[in-house]
What we know:
Residues 40-62, 109-271 are annotated as: Disordered. This protein has 867 residues and is α+β, with helices and mostly antiparallel strands.
Amino acid sequence: MSKIHVYELAKQLGIENKELIARLKSHGIEVKSHMSALEEDEVKKVTAPAAPPKAVSAKEQDEIRVTTTVIRRRPKAVEAQPEVPEAPALEAPAAVVEAAEIAPPVEEPVVTPEPVPAAPPEKPVAPVPPAPAQEAPAAVEPQPEMPTANRARILGRVELPGITTKPAAKPAERREVVIPPKRKMEERIMTPAPSERPAAPAPSADQKKGGRKKEFVAAPPEPDRGAKKGVAPAAKKKEAFKKSEMLERRERVFEPGPKAGKGKRRDKEYVSAGRKTEITVPKAIKRIIKISESITVGELAKRMGVKATDLIRVLMKMGMMVTINHPLDVDTATLVANDFGYEIENVALDVDEILEAVPDAPESLVKRPPVVTIMGHVDHGKTSLLDAIREANVIAGEAGGITQHIGAYDVELNGRKITFLDTPGHEAFTAMRARGAKVTDIVILVVAADDGVMPQTREAVNHSKAAGVPIIVAINKIDKPEAKPERVKQELMELGLVSEEWGGETIFVEVSAKKRINLPELLEMVLLQADVMDLRANPDKEARGTIVEAKLDRGRGPVATVLVQEGTLKNGDFFVAGVHYGRVRAMQNDRAEKVQSAGPSMPVEVIGFTGVPDAGDVFIGMNDEKRAKEIASHRQQKLRETELAKHSKMSLEQLYDKIQKGEVKDLNVIVKADVQGSVEAVAESLRKLSTAAVRLNVLHSSVGAITETDVNLATASSAIILGFNVRPEPKASALADKEGVDVRLYNIIYDAVEDIKKAMEGLLEPTLREKYLGRAEVREVFSVPKVGNVAGSYVQDGVMKRNAQVRLLRDNVVIYEGKMSSLRRFKDDVKEVATGYECGIGLENYNDIKVGDIIEDFEIEKVAATL
Ligand SMILES: Nc1nc2c(ncn2[C@@H]2O[C@H](COP(=O)(O)OP(=O)(O)OP(=O)(O)O)[C@@H](O)[C@H]2O)c(=O)[nH]1
């Protein structure tokens, strides 16, 4: 080869034409373009760095020598200067790279050196082997301009490890070449400080261009190859390499460890070295894990970067038996995460917040009817009053109107409406309040004039006050001759309800539900109170309200009474209520009339729910079905998760313990029904029966007759089978008989639920309850020979029963608890002594009785627990 084109040489060298041209220039060889031809000696100049070495200044030589030394005598160099571990570490790789760099063009020469200084073909590299220390410098020389800069730059590159990885492409060859020196390097220098690895490799003194560097790196293999097998077609391969370079590089990045042992190991070393650095540095980030209400054990472990088993172990230590898929609630997650040095942040998407009612502009508000709840003591006439008001109104309106119970109704007086929630009693009122629903504007407190203030009257007053709802007192049964309204007023005054005529602010109306006395007056007062309260709402927006009542209707599916509180609900509107959503298919009022829209304070029965909502659920109308669906499913998921998390929490903290002690019972149920709707309804109602003490598991539910499979399942899991409008197949029936499986058939869901409830109660342990019998005061203490002290007592309350349990109280402190050993009246033993009588009481094994002590007797009775 006498002449060679620039581009050819560049190709051979595996560098860019431009780069080669620049290099040529630096050697004083001017070329016009990559097509220019180069003379042999010119080629030598560029490719053989040998020449310049001598020209290097003493100072430079020094520097270079280190490098060179390292290159050629890595082992020695290292050994020789162990005190300078860092420097060599850095230089060494550089040297390798350099050598490689130089080598490529010369191919064989480089190879030869290692084994024996052999005869490196002809070119520059030849000298390298024998006098490496000097030659290397030469190689470096050509680019002396950038010694420091280069180093700095290269040091910063992380590619080198990857590059080193390159051998992946030609594992065998590369391994052969680079390994020997590198191995040693790594073993002796690198290994001690692996983290420096990424930096160390960079040093290659030459180029600033990454690509080039890579090529050079790629080169080393060749020399090695040469070493073993002679000359490798480096140049040609390089081309191919170039083409696939990008791909290869990628592979290298992602799969650093190719196959073969050595190469693989080396790759790993490099790669892991790189990774290590990354891991230690970035993990300084705040250790906060964001979760939404709950997180599964597996996910939490993953996010903390710990093994799930380790996390489970920690949880077990905390008494929680969990599996990897168990959801943990925020509290639990926080607790365990702390153990691992992490913090938990609950970033639950608060849908309710999104749906928060936006305050309306004052001008958009219009007057709305008041919503009234009737409360009072049992039998004081709540229902009668509700009915009376309604009937009176119906009669006043359209005669004969068929009314139906929908949980609420409205009446009209002088063109103004009043809405009554017709679930009397404070239970419904508080249940709704407990759910955060504020529905009632005014409470009508019914007090029977002949009975006065009773316990539930007090409760009702307290509940109303707690809710900040004004009370209007309806003194009922005023028609009764024994009615004493004044007494009622007086008693109520003690509860803070002072009538207006007595200077107070509470409105009192004397009525008779039975005789329809003063009902309009009562309603008038309600309206008056409403005026004072200035109840307003904006009717011109999407509806917002509360579910007053809901049920599953056989023909219509889930049906709920919605009390619209703001906006207007129209037919066809989409909505969300609790965990359910739907679209208003039809609405009707309590008079069973179809309505097209319902404004503020209007109760309507809505059809179109996807499920039965709960009373007290907030009802929100919206135009967007997708949104309604999303919110509902989000809520459902949250509900499920929290319930599951709660459940598992309980099983960990209490339930598990209880199960161990046999205190917790499970009731397994299989539900079969004629239609899917019933299956779901039953399953849902049953699930709701689960309590902390008895868990109700619906093992299986489906449509169709009760089959043998169902019976088998029931047998295997001690379940009972509930059938709704279905019968067992004859074979199933026989099997059930044989296996003793309880199969219950119903037509009404309510009956089934009731039965199950009872069954669950039967499963519960009977509760031991103390039953107070009476008390007696010790007035005298007699000392009876052979018996001990006997308390001469006077029964103040209840009865004293022989053999009853007793408690001796002194200054209200129990000083003895045991059994009564004797009970006498005068000299006779008696079974019991009633109030107002005197008796002698002996206490079993206890004599320290004093005058003034109180003896209380009681019995322990077993009470079947109720849910
Ligand atoms: N004389 C008379 N009797 C009444 C009046 N109002 C109700 N009663 C009677 O009182 C009894 C109880 O009435 P209810 O309306 O059932 O009372 P309640 O408060 O709804 O009772 P619970 O639903 O059990 O809490 C019934 O026998 C009614 O007939 C009344 O104004 N005058």
